[in-house]
Specification:
heterodimer; A: mainly alpha; B: 426 residues; alpha/beta; Rossmann fold; four-stranded parallel sheet
């Protein structure tokens, strides 16, 4: 169309409107390491739950201890929520208390069913299934928020976090079905469900309230987990230690190393984004 | 010409291939089109002016594309190329698997190869990443490439890593003899705004839902005509009900191509709200019918029409309403016949064919290269991908040699040529 120019003429304005790496965030090593502490904190929580399961299956822990543990957990959970959440009224607390009591009663009534749930399945299949479910749970878990909506939180849970929650619940039911007495079944299910359902919520509220408290809590938890695992099994201790080092030190370094290769291209050829939400 | 997209399917690429082929036939060249079989249309057909179309008997498998069997198309393509004594293979549309395979086999057999890209693609979603890699493979060894706009050229060069000197920009054109304005000028009351497009997300149907009620509210004498069908039609109908615009917004449903001219001639302004467009032929058709165009400023649209024939807006409802206001204000100064005359001078398929001919000449003058000389070009595609692509080409070469042993070139019967003068008389 331009007279005097060849069709394959390329002049200075070629690719002038291209924008590179417009949305890329520059990452700082220390901040990434501090953020990765949430991941290792959750890893330690899950490790502690598995420890409790192992000890209960070995009959090292009695039912009374478990029930006391459950009540302590509920109490401390409420305490932390009261301390950290800003928009908590008495009515809401009463609502929570009623829901929890319904939940506990329901579990107690249903525990005979769980007791005989997997009687016909061999132990090896149960251990294998539980291990894979716990690994699936860790893989798909939403480490940045909480699947149960915290008061004042904005994000809705997505598909993968729901799948991970379901995996953890099924794993705890499977373990519980291997136990000898009904009260033990009830206690262990209550304990596992409390941790899996509410631990992300509690840690999220704690993190929002004070970052230093969150860091302190994480380190205490890591130390506690490592000592308990050491007493149980030396190889697992080494594996857990290696995993924590990998998550906290190696992964941030790796992430920052490969950030250099990020190459994002934007330009006039991009599809336009609508600035309003489509309401059907 | 090879592509998955051809008649009886309807669209921009199909139209482009058909009209370009017709103009090349008029210039005295021999053109053969190859595509896949449609519902019950399979085999060889002849179209106007002796355009031969091979509907190769494969059914489309996903979104009008044939199943990508890497080497399955080699025998049939070889047979067609030898029978018809082809000298150059021209593939269309990056999304067409048949095109990529045909270009690969043509290159193995030593023919010169040209590729035309008709659309814009992104870089970040998983579908685009795969497509760009396939495109990089095909374009690593293409002789020349054609794009339909400068924005499309930038996009193609970035996606495939081609040197910009190899890419020619030849815009699409419009058939100005078919799209003529109405003989008498329409009255200015009511002002009619025409929208003809597929009602999908990509074509900005959601923007229409926001813009139409606003414009109807501001200007009581404006009417809308919406032609076209698609998944978003339901939203437009709902919008019509909600604001009680049944008498001011007409929904015509799918408009066959032959009737597009009459729909355009019943309006004053053409509204195009697409979110991405390499080169918008709809705007050309509207301008050829003498309508003032209002469009979103995306992709290659700013390069299509001169500034006095089009009002551009950001893809944002308030900005588009503002642009429609401006268009209504300058509408009395527009002369449809003058616009049509200018379009006739600026855009013609014969011009496109001549420019394409220059590209073909350039391609034919390039030297022939053996397999060993061509392989280094594939190695630059990537650390792992380069070696994989080289392997694919080597296997293709071996298969071609085996095919030559089994059915030598001399055994394939060439097709007798039509005598052109007889066709011209008839």
């Amino acid at each position: 169309m331009q007279p005097g120019f060849d069709d394959n003429h390329t002049d200075d304005t070629f690719l002038q409107e291209m924008v590179m790496n417009a949305n890329v965030v520059k990452r700082d090593m220390l901040k990434v390491m501090l953020d990765s502490v949430s991941i290792s904190q959750y890893l330690c929580i899950v490790a502690l739950v598995v420890l409790v399961w192992a000890h209960t299956l070995n009959s090292t822990i009695t039912e009374n201890f478990l029930i006391i543990l459950d009540i302590t957990l509920v109490g401390s959970g409420f305490f932390i929520l009261l301390l950290t959440a800003k928009m908590l009224s008495f009515k809401l607390l009463l609502n929570y208390a009623i829901k929890i009591s319904f939940f506990t009663t329901g579990l107690y009534v249903l525990s005979p069913i769980y007791h005989t749930l997997t009687r016909s399945i061999s132990s090896d299949s149960i251990w294998a299934l539980t291990t894979s479910l716990v690994i699936l749970h860790l893989f798909l878990h939403n480490y940045s928020g909480s699947t149960i909506k915290a008061p004042g939180a904005l994000e809705n849970p997505n598909l993968t976090s729901n799948i991970s929650l379901n995996a953890s619940i099924v794993a705890s039911l499977l373990i519980a079905s291997r136990l000898p007495s009904r009260l033990l079944v009830f206690a262990i299910i209550l304990f596992s469900l409390q941790v899996f359902l509410f631990a992300p919520l509690i840690t999220y509220c704690l993190k929002k309230y004070s970052f230093r408290l969150h860091l302190l809590f994480s380190f205490v938890l890591m130390a506690l987990t490592l000592t308990c695992v050491y007493r149980l099994h030396k190889l697992l201790f080494v594996v857990l230690l290696g995993l924590l080092v990998f998550v906290n030190l190696v992964c941030p370094y790796w992430l920052i190393r490969i950030q250099e290769y990020k190459f994002e291209i934007n330009g006039p050829w991009d599809e336009a984004k609508l600035c309003f939400n489509i309401t059907d | 010409m090879v592509s998955d997209f051809f008649y009886p399917n309807f669209g921009g690429v199909e139209n482009h291939i058909y009209l370009l082929s017709q103009c090349l036939l008029k210039l005295g060249h021999k053109v053969v089109v190859m595509t896949h079989a449609y519902a019950n249309r399979s085999g060889v057909r002849y179209m106007t002016n002796g355009l031969k179309v091979y509907y190769v008997p494969w059914k489309p498998f996903l979104m009008q594309n044939t199943l990508p069997t890497f080497y399955g198309t080699l025998p049939i393509i070889r047979t067609i190329l030898i029978r018809e004594k082809i000298s150059l293979v021209h593939g269309h549309q990056a999304f067409s698997t048949l095109c990529h395979e045909a270009l690969m086999h043509a290159r193995t057999m030593g023919y010169k190869v040209i590729f035309t890209d008709h659309s814009l693609y992104g870089f970040s979603d998983i579908g685009s990443i795969h497509m760009n890699k396939v495109l990089q493979f095909t374009l690593a060894d293409v002789t020349q490439a054609i794009c339909v706009s400068h924005t499309s050229k930038e996009n193609t060069v970035l996606r495939s890593g081609l040197p910009p000197e190899k890419v020619f920009v030849i815009p699409n054109a419009v058939d100005t003899t078919m799209f003529k304005p109405a003989p008498e000028r329409l009255s200015m009351d009511p002002i009619v705004i025409v929208v003809i497009s597929r009602l999908v997300y990509r074509k900005g149907a959601d923007l229409l839902v926001e813009v139409i009620p606003e414009v109807c509210h501001l200007y009581p004498n404006v009417r809308f005509i919406i032609g076209g069908d698609g998944p978003k039609r339901v939203r437009l109908e709902e919008m019509r009900e909600k604001h009680s615009l049944q008498d001011r917004v007409d929904m015509l449903g799918a408009v066959p191509h032959a009737k597009v001219r009459s729909v355009l001639n019943s309006g004053h302004i053409f509204l195009n709200s697409s979110l991405t467009e390499a080169f918008c032929i709809a705007i050309l058709e509207a301008a050829s019918c003498g309508l003032l165009t209002v469009s979103t400023r995306v992709g290659g649209v700013p390069e299509v029409l001169p500034d006095d024939m089009i009002v551009l807006a950001k893809p944002d409802p308030s900005d588009m309403v503002h642009a429609i206001k401006k268009a209504i204000r300058i509408l009395p100064h527009i002369d449809p016949q003058e616009m049509h005359r200018r379009m006739k001078e600026m855009y013609s398929w014969h011009d496109v064919a001549k420019r394409t001919e220059i590209v073909y000449d350039r391609a034919l003058r390039c030297s022939n290269q053996t397999l060993l000389e061509r392989l280094p070009r594939y190695l630059t595609c990537g650390a792992w991908a380069g070696k994989l692509f080289c392997l694919v080409m080597i296997i293709d070469f071996i298969l071609w040699r085996l095919l030559q042993l089994w059915q030598p070139d001399s055994e394939v019967e060439p097709v007798p040529d039509f005598k052109r003068t007889e066709l011209k008389r008839g």
